[in-house]
Hints:
There is one protein chain. The chain has eleven helices and 15 strands. Helices cover 43% and strands 18% of the residues. The model is unreliable at 372-397 (pLDDT under 50). It has a five-stranded antiparallel β-sheet with strand order 2-6-7-1-5. Strands 10-9-8-11-12 form a five-stranded mixed β-sheet. A three-stranded antiparallel β-sheet has the order 14-13-15. By secondary structure, the protein is an alpha+beta fold. The protein folds into three domains: 2-168, no CATH class; 180-200 and 238-311, no CATH class; 312-397, no CATH class. A hairpin with a 5-residue loop joins strand 13 and strand 14. The chain has helices at 13-44, 50-61, 74-92, 204-207, 209-221, 227-261, 272-275, 282-288, 290-304, 348-366, 374-382, and strands at 2-9, 109-114, 118-121, 124-127, 136-137, 150-155, 161-168, 180-185, 189-193, 198-200, 264-268, 307-311, 337-339, 345-347, 391-392.
Amino acid sequence: MKRAYKYRFYPTEQQRHELLRTFxxxxxxxxxxxxxxxxxxxxxxxxxxYVQASAMLTEWKNTDELAFLSxxxxxxxxxxLRHLQRxxxxxxxxxxxYPRFKSRKKSRASAEYTRSAFTWRDGNVTLxxxxxxxxxxxxxxxxxxxxxSTVTVSCDAARRWFVSILVKTTVDHHPRSTxxxxxxxxxxxxxxxxxxxxxxxxxxxxxxxxxxxxAQRELARKRKGSANRAKARLNVARIYAKITxxxxxxxxxITTRLxxxxxxxxxxxxxxxxxVKNGNLARAISDASWTQLRLMLExxxxxxxxxxxxxDRWFPSSKMCSECxxxxxxxxxxxxxxxxxxxxxxxxxxxxAKNIVAAGLAxxxxxGSARPTRRESVRQLSMKQETQPVRVGIxxx
Length: 397
């Protein structure tokens, strides 16, 4: 398989100047190609292919106005046209929204170099139009004998430079086991496992909220376009970068452990984009980063021979007794513990995780869906023993 290894590097002044020029040219070519393809569709109902966009790029280079495009490496410019073609393919296949224009301030500055635009010699990467190799901090070694096929250089809002090296390698699967675990994502606890374990939510954004608020207020006071405003914006970006790095590191450690210890991992299909519309919980949900958690679990499971099963978001995991299967009317969010009529006392999150793993294993064994049909739900709720109100235990403070 192909895997990307990301490292930080420190460019020289000449390299920084060349890369910034390349970033600007990539952004310009992408936006002009997107504008041309959009105009062709709305005026002539005509689709522009990658080959036609590449011919446009050649014409742009021959004009006096855009002759500077020939001063940077042509490979990143061609690659951005390929990225645009992929974006349109995903849009027409209903996998993504319509491509958007790149912004100088908001979009990620990056350039992709294929094998013809860089040299790999003695563990050093030298990009086209540069005389010196990149000063890369090798925080972890590349696979032995691996040769890069693509090198992507990027600079984030905190002005940190990164290089992502794509190599072809092999990954050994973990030994098979019979362990299965259900995962209930939450805010008070980041994850609750069907084993009863609760994984703490560090709330990374809350820890630095005072520093962040202070930096944002200072940014708001600065005059737009001034050098002081640029410094204040950089300070805010650096605080955000630290929060993001800590969150990503924590999620990597948790997901790696879950994939290593369990053969099957069952999670819920949460509607995160809809949940963040709740103004009271949006900040906490975004800080928990459930979407990134799911992505990490899925790609690591595919690497190491594990299985991730996704349960339907409407499956009533919190309202069903994991012991007798009784489905109660409702369990309010402020109720963290409740007692079923069978006498079993439940922790809300642990009970949900147990139901999730049971539903996931049933789906894996028999197929179908983990979501009960409307007729089944109505019949269950109409039964006398299942319409008993829940006996509240400990409410959430």
